[in-house]
Write a structure and sequence with these properties.
alpha/beta; three-stranded antiparallel beta sheet
Length: 406
C-alpha cells in the first residue's frame, strides 16, 4: 500500500518509446497497424508516393476536406514522399530501414520482393529488424497473385454469407478484413519485439487478410465444420436464442434486448410484458419453445415495447435485469454518453485544423496517455528525414528537382 506521504511514482513511459517503424503502406491494413504502434509511442515514418501519396488520401473529403480513412489510420506519423522506382529514392528507404526496429509493407504481391523490401531479404541483412509482410492471401498458394480488396476478402472468408437477412447477404459496414489483418500485424510486431528482447533477433512476420478474417469467423466456422449446418442469416436476431432482436419503440427508436435464460424470460414476462403467466406457459417457458414460436414471441415483445419510448423501454428492461441496448446510428455513437463520461475524445492536428479522435482502446493506467499526433500532410517530413540519413541541402534539392522526393 502506498502511504499518503510517499512520493507519487513518475508515470511510466509509453511502451514503444524509442522504437522506430518504417512503413511502405497504403489503404487500411498496414496504416491501421502502424497507427496503433504510433499511439503507443513508436516513431512511425510513412513512405508515400510522390504523385499523391497513399491513395487513401483521395478516398473522400469528408473530414474537413481530408479523407476519413486517411485521418483514421495515419495520425502521429512522419510522411516522406519518395519515388521507389528511382534507385535514389529506394536508397533513402534502405537507409531509413537500417536505423529502424520494424518495417511494415502491404504492397501488391511481388512488388516488395522486386524492390528488395520483402521481409526475408531485409531480415537477412538486418538480424535485429522485425519485418512485416501484409498480403491479401499469403505469399504462396493459388490465390497469392489475386487482387485483395476488403469486400472481396469478406466474400472469400464467408463473412458475407453469415451477415444480413435470410433473403439478402450483405458485407460488413466496416472494412473487417483490413482491420483483422491490421490487428494481427500490430500484435505480431508486439510479440516479435518481446522475442527480440529475449533473443536479440528480429525476424519476419507474415499476415494475410484471408487468414485473419477466417480466424474471426470462429463460431460460424466451427459450428459448420463440426456440426454440419451453416448458421442462418437472421438480421439483428439471434439464430438460436429468443427473444434476442431489435424492436421499434413509440418514438421511432429501436431497442435491442437479449434473454439469455428462462429465469430472465420470467422476469421479462412479469415486469416488461405485463403477462406473468407467459413465464410458465409451456409454449414460451423454455428457450427451445420460444425459438420454435419465434414470430409469436417477437410479436409479444414488440407489442409491449411499441407502447413505450426508447428511454422508457430501456429503463423498464434494465429494472428487470434484462440485457438491452439502444440501436444507435453513427452520429449518435459520436455523442455516446459513456464515451463522453469516460473522457475518451481528444483532438489531433491535421492540415485542415484540429479533428476529433477517439483515444485508443488500449488504456495503460499509471503511464503516459497514448500519443495521438498530427495527421501529416504529404511529404511533411521529407526534408528532415533526408537530412537524418545524411543528405546535404544540395542533394535534397536535386531529388526534389528530379521528382524523386516531394
Amino acid at each position: 500500500m502506498i502511504h499518503p506521504m510517499d512520493p507519487v511514482p513518475a508515470p511510466l513511459p509509453l511502451p514503444l518509446e524509442g522504437i522506430t517503424v518504417v512503413a511502405v503502406e497504403q489503404a487500411v491494413s498496414a496504416p491501421f497497424a502502424t497507427r496503433q504502434l504510433a499511439d503507443l509511442g513508436a516513431r512511425v515514418i510513412k513512405v508515400e508516393r510522390v504523385d499523391g501519396g497513399d491513395f487513401a488520401r483521395g478516398y473522400d473529403t469528408a473530414a474537413r476536406g481530408l479523407a476519413s480513412h486517411f485521418v483514421w489510420c495515419n495520425r502521429g506519423k512522419e510522411s516522406i514522399a519518395l519515388d521507389l522506382k528511382d534507385p535514389r529514392g529506394l536508397d533513402v528507404v534502405r537507409r531509413l530501414i537500417a536505423r529502424a526496429d520494424v518495417f511494415v509493407q502491404n504492397l501488391a504481391h511481388g512488388a516488395a520482393a522486386r524492390l528488395g523490401l520483402d521481409a526475408a531479404t531485409l531480415c537477412a541483412a538486418h538480424p535485429r529488424l522485425i519485418a512485416v509482410d501484409i498480403s491479401g492471401y499469403g505469399s504462396s498458394g493459388p490465390y497469392a497473385d489475386k487482387r485483395a480488396y476488403d469486400m472481396l476478402v469478406q466474400c472469400e472468408a464467408g463473412l458475407v454469407s453469415v451477415t444480413g437477412t435470410p433473403e439478402q447477404p450483405v458485407k460488413a459496414g466496416i472494412p473487417a478484413a483490413d482491420i483483422a489483418a491490421a490487428m494481427y500485424a500490430f500484435s505480431g510486431v508486439l510479440a516479435a519485439l518481446v522475442r527480440r528482447g529475449a533473443t536479440g533477433r528480429g525476424g519476419p512476420v507474415e499476415v494475410s487478410m484471408l487468414e485473419a478474417l477466417t480466424e474471426w469467423m470462429g463460431h460460424p466456422l466451427h459450428h459448420t465444420m463440426h456440426g454440419g449446418t451453416p448458421p442462418a442469416r437472421t438480421g439483428l436476431a439471434h439464430a438460436v436464442i429468443a427473444p434476442y432482436d431489435a424492436y421499434p419503440t413509440a418514438d421511432g427508436g429501436r431497442v435491442l434486448l437479449s434473454v439469455q435464460n428462462d429465469r430472465e424470460w420470467r422476469r421479462l414476462a412479469e415486469q416488461v410484458l405485463g403477462c406473468p403467466e407467459l413465464g410458465t406457459d409451456p409454449e414460451f417457458a423454455t428457450n427451445a419453445a420460444r425459438v420454435a414460436r419465434r414470430e409469436r414471441t417477437d410479436a409479444l415483445v414488440a407489442k409491449a415495447l411499441g407502447a413505450l419510448t426508447a428511454d422508457e423501454a430501456l429503463a423498464r428492461l434494465e429494472g428487470a435485469g434484462i440485457a438491452c441496448a439502444r440501436l444507435r446510428d453513427v452520429a449518435e455513437v459520436a455523442e455516446h454518453p459513456q464515451l463522453a463520461a469516460r473522457g475518451r475524445w481528444r483532438e489531433v492536428g491535421s492540415p485542415a485544423g484540429p479533428l476529433k479522435a477517439l483515444l485508443p482502446p488500449i488504456t495503460l493506467p499509471g503511464g503516459d496517455e497514448a500519443r495521438m499526433g498530427d495527421v501529416p500532410a504529404l511529404g511533411r517530413h521529407t526534408d528532415e528525414l533526408l537530412r537524418a540519413v545524411g543528405m546535404t541541402d544540395g542533394e535534397i534539392a536535386e531529388l526534389r528537382r528530379d521528382g524523386v522526393a516531394a
